[in-house]
């Protein structure tokens, strides 16, 4: 089983490694990608306010340097972009980061993180009234996760299964999972018109789902990971860290500025999110409610990430066990009080 999981996690790496290091972009653009959801708000603020461009200019980068942003829904696309040279900075779930670090460490295409992004409480929700705990799921249920077997939600579900059924049953619910982006999964659960009746969700989609009649939470990820964990990070390859260190410095300065802005001006940050996503079902007040949860942490410092490294190594998803979180973060982050 562990070999299969590792192959699923790393399949795109083998394809991209041959081309990595030789690909060259014809332009001088800095390409950034992120994914969907409120946990990516700091990156959205950076884009909206052009904070990265401002910090690049302060670091001596030409004023006409162009930063392009794209939203990706899959880990595979992110991995391919980083390895091929078409993406310079990307957001990644901690499980994807660990897989990339495990496979590329010590190579010319090595990938690590430079910062955490945020930690939000996120639930496994269902509209099946008979499901009170994960022991109640049946063959009739379908649980949406961003990527089966490899996404953060899929791994947390396995960790929860270990607690519920025992170590030899960690994959007991894998057969019920389907890969689906958060926006689509939320619609499926709320509509009640899809075979997908459950969703390991993420804010703000979880907020909307939980206020839908007939939908309830089965468990919260923070209970499985024994507290908040920074599940998404900013990752970048060796070629950027070594060849463009001022880009990294500018990024971190911009990300800190964005995180501070959210803390000082939550309403303005919420309104930017609504404008950028064209979200109509949620209000700025709804987003402020989510952001004010005491379990929410927004900032560059990563928390409680080793819980994922330990689990993934135990089950064979990664071959190398990191001595600490610093092993899969570039030295630029080592001064942080991470874990």
Architecture overview:
There is one protein chain. The protein is an alpha/beta fold. It has two domains: 2-120 and 229-333, Periplasmic binding protein-like II (D-Maltodextrin-Binding Protein, domain 2, 3-Layer(aba) Sandwich), CATH 3.40.190.10; 123-224, Periplasmic binding protein-like II (D-Maltodextrin-Binding Protein, domain 2). It has 14 helices and eleven strands. It has helices at residues 2-17, 41-49, 51-58, 75-84, 94-104, 152-165, 182-191, 205-210, 221-224, 238-243, 245-264, 266-277, 284-291, 306-314, and strands at 30-34, 67-71, 89-93, 111-119, 123-126, 143-145, 177-179, 198-200, 216-220, 232-237, 297-298. The protein has a six-stranded mixed β-sheet with strand order 2-1-3-10-4-11, with helices on both faces. Helix 1 packs parallel to helix 4 (75-84). The longest helix has 20 residues, at 245-264.
Report Rg: 19 Å
Summing up helix and strand content along with how strands pair, one would put the structural category as alpha/beta
Strand proportion, as a percent range, falls in: 5-15%
Helix content: 40-55%
Say how many strands there are.
Answer: 11
Taking pLDDT < 50 over at least 5 consecutive residues as the criterion, the unreliable ranges are 3-27
Number of helices: 14
Give me the CATH superfamily of the largest domain.
Periplasmic binding protein-like II
List keywords for this structure.
alpha/beta; 14 helices; six-stranded mixed β-sheet; 339 residues; D-Maltodextrin-Binding Protein, domain 2
